[in-house]
């Protein structure tokens, strides 16, 4: 058994430890988790997992390209070439990198980045809101997979005055042409008297096409304006329509944690 320059065994009695690879604390520092010294403290205190198992030995070496690391049960992206962008997609833009009909598409929001980015899922042209752009194909596959069903929250401006009974119906479930559907959550944000417009918030995990618009139309309240405010753990916040920003480390960790859990579920459906 070999030792590093600090005298710590590479294997430290762990049969799962790699004989080659890079020391864990160095990988964590390179990924921006913390300085190497702080990363060592995190390891010693049992707050770091490699491939789901707690690691406490400083001599542990890993393969960043294949091993998965989490700190305090939050996933860490070790591949620094991956890019994760949040876009507040404006109305009138199609969710495509090259629209064959010549309509405004997502290229205007990705041209500033060196990486070749693509969108995770879609929003129809008349719906604005949160859309993720990335070059992480594995994450995009999991989040867009029908069996995963990431939670999404929308705010809709609809025709007419929405009643509590209608909200109950949306949560209990309604029948559409392509099968039954129920919102995970639904609530009225504003419902003025008369026959004006109401604001409704819907949360659901379905990825079916134009599902929010179809649900609200089915209960007698056609959508006038629709925005997606939340996608999984991500919130649109104050990002203005047409603006983009990189995910924070906290946001990225939460998104990767969700996608890794979903990846195991997706793999189980094969």
UniProtKB/TrEMBL annotation:
The keyword Isomerase applies. GO terms for cellular component: cytosol. Keywords: Isomerase, RNA-binding. Transmembrane segments: none annotated. Its EC number is 5.4.99.-. GO terms for biological process: enzyme-directed rRNA pseudouridine synthesis. It holds the Pfam family S4. It catalyses: a uridine in RNA = a pseudouridine in RNA. Residues 22-86 form the RNA-binding S4 domain. One of its GO terms (molecular function) is rRNA pseudouridine synthase activity. It comes from the Bacteria. The keyword Transcription does not apply. It is an enzyme of class 5 (isomerase). InterPro entries: PsdUridine_s_RsuA/RluB/E/F_cat, PsdUridine_synth_cat_dom_sf, PsdUridine_synth_RsuA/RluA, PsdUridine_synth_RsuA/RluB/E/F, PsdUridine_synth_RsuA/RluB_CS, RsuA_PseudoU_synthase, S4_RNA-bd, S4_RNA-bd_sf. Belongs to the pseudouridine synthase RsuA family. This is Pseudouridine synthase. It comes from Cryobacterium psychrotolerans.
